[in-house]
Amino acid sequence: MDKEYDVIVLGTGLKECILSGLLSVGGLKVLHMDRNDYYGGESSSLNLVQLWKRFRGNDKPPEHLGASKEYNVDMIPKFMMANGALVRVLIHTNVTKYLNFKAVDGSFVYNRGKIYKVPATDIEALKSTLMGLLEKRRARKFFIYVQDYDDNDPKSHEGLDLNKVTAREIISKYGLDEDTVDFIGHALALHPDDSYLDGPAMDTVKRMKLYAESLASFQGGSPYIYPLYGLGELPQGFARLSAVHGGTYMLNKPECKVEFDENGKACGVTSDGETARCKKIVCDPSYLPNKVQKVGMVARAICIMSHPMPHTNESHSAQVILPQKQIGRKSDMYLFCCSYSHNVAPKGKYIAFVSTEAESNQPEVELKPGIDLLGPVDEIFYDMYDRYEPINKSDDDNCFISTSYDATTHFESTVKDVISMYCKITGKVLDLTADMSAASAASG
Predict the structure, then answer these.
(1) Which of 58, 235, 357, 377 is least enclosed by beta carbons within 10 angstroms?
(2) pLDDT reading at 442 higher than 60
(3) Domain membership flag for residue 48
């Protein structure tokens, strides 16, 4: 084992693999270790036998579900915004050459007991059955304002400083009703709850613009893309990037104990009786449990089905957002469906996920509003996991710990955490703005 590294990365979750790749490209000497014998950590994709082993305690799934190896079931299911931060990181690092992506067929929202396609532009607003005639006109005006808004063009601001005006104030200026506010805030701006209403309107406008830009990047019916063969491909892509730039990988390493010097600073990792020295540690919360705190739980159901989600235009891949108010919760619920069209299941099979920030210890009860929308399911697995955030000061102990994955079904918060960690580790800003115009090239 080479004895001295700039950074040792523990865990091969997506966040850790992106950082490993970025740091290696930046010229740092990186050793990447994992206690597991596979890539992906919490964000891996499992075949059917692995899924059965994890949730049913045996490795004998029923034969009628098809071949195990044809399944790639994500443990942290998320789509990618076509013009979002993760796509920009993929383009910035050229990891796109290791992966193939396909657009997601549909984006939908649950409103008053029904599922509707999400209108994302002024033209779609006029066609939508989600709103009455007068409301469509008001919504169209608001969409045009958002589409035309330009930071550098004061004329487009209509006299409003979006850093001072709240989202609630700008929405009321257009006289939009509650249901319209609901789908704009949750299905377009993708806020996980209603707390955004009292925050600066700029954040909501930028999120809506990202949605519209992502939708325009592809000729699909949604702003989302997703890799063929599941999300487990992403950590492996970044691992290859790191290896190409000199990173060293060691899987199946037991223990991985972080060592500290007399000043409380991380100085190495011991595994199998050998110690590798380093200046900094990057890891997921499971490697340094005494330096993180629990901040919540995610409840999730994984369903294998033989049909697409009902009321989604027979979409082979789709997202449905259930805004909190529509189902009487404190945060949103997300339905996410993929199928054989993205090579994550055998022909004729669909994998659906229902996720939410848990409010109790009863996932079967909490997730019922979403599961009820799926129709008959062949198999269902319930899962709950704790969410952690670091409480250490990385300046004091040289430990950089990622936050756990949230319930949202896109990667914007994931990449925000990665970029923040990268800046703290290197002292450099990761500028992805130059990659925006190239984002549509990621369609592969």
Answers:
(1) 58
(2) no
(3) no
